[in-house]
Design a protein that fits this description.
Layout lengths: L2 H13 L8 H12 L7 H4 L5 H13 L2 H20 L11 H96 L1
Helix pairs in contact: 1-2, 2-6, 4-6
């Protein structure tokens, strides 16, 4: 049987659909089952192919989304406001802290797109992980169905063999009973004649 025929048969048996109408993911699962290959981790998930700027964005997002950053930034804000409120002559940003407002706006303007880039990459990676999980789960389910079919076929074959053996035994018993009846009948007739 050719590989294409085997794949088409597996698709019909396991999914109840023609191989041609399956989605690419379903086809890949049928192909993995047909070749009995392991469902390895896709290269996109196993390697780190991020550029320097993408790694930098991920690092900034990791720092910017941490409690350490929040508490550090809060400490800097408190120190900034305290210094400029208490030291009127040495204050570099007196009340209403216009320079502080500018610095915070610039940080937010730069940090937000960097975090968004990192989140977009994380979402794409999560989609790939979900697709890989789907392939593994679908394959496991189909393999289990395939094993059930094989076990059912073996059980049916075993039942046929048991029935055949029982039929042969019954035929032998019938033959033995008939022989015994014939002998008894012969011996009765012999005793009656005597």
């Amino acid at each position: 049987m050719q590989a294409g025929d085997h794949n088409a048969e597996l698709a019909e048996t396991l999914l109840g659909r023609s191989y041609d109408v399956l989605t690419p993911v379903q086809r890949s699962v049928i192909d993995l089952i047909a070749t009995e290959s392991p469902s390895g981790l896709s290269p996109e998930l196993s390697g780190d192919d991020r550029t320097f700027w993408q790694r930098l964005a991920d690092s900034i997002a990791a720092v910017g989304g941490s409690w350490r950053f929040i508490f550090s930034f809060l400490g800097i804000l408190i120190a900034w406001v305290t210094w400029n409120a208490l030291t009127k002559k040495l204050a570099f940003d007196p009340y209403p802290f216009i320079f502080l407002n500018l610095v915070m706006s610039m940080i937010a303007a730069l940090q937000a797109p960097v975090i968004m880039m990192s989140q977009n990459r994380a979402a794409a990676r999560d989609r790939m992980n979900a697709e890989h999980d789907y392939v593994v789960n679908l394959r496991a389910e189909l393999e289990i169905m395939h094993l059930h079919d094989k076990l059912d076929a073996l059980r049916n074959q075993e039942l046929v063999e048991v029935i055949r053996a029982q039929t042969e035994t019954l035929n032998l018993l019938k033959h033995d009973i008939a022989a015994l009846k014939a002998r008894r009948g012969w011996s009765r007739m012999a005793s009656l004649e005597a």
